Amino acid sequence: MKNKVFIVSILLSLLFTGIVNAASIWGSYKGNDIIKIMYNGKTLSTNDVPAVSLNGRTMIPISMLSQVGIQYTWNQTTKTVTITSTNGSTASNNQTSNVQKTYPSLYSNDLKVYLGKLTTDKYDKDSIYNEYGTYGSKYQTKSIWNEYGTYGSKFSSESAFNELASTPPAIVYNGEIFGHLTTNSTISDGVNIAGLLVWLNENGF
Question: What pTM was estimated for this model as a whole?
Answer without folding.
Answer: 0.52
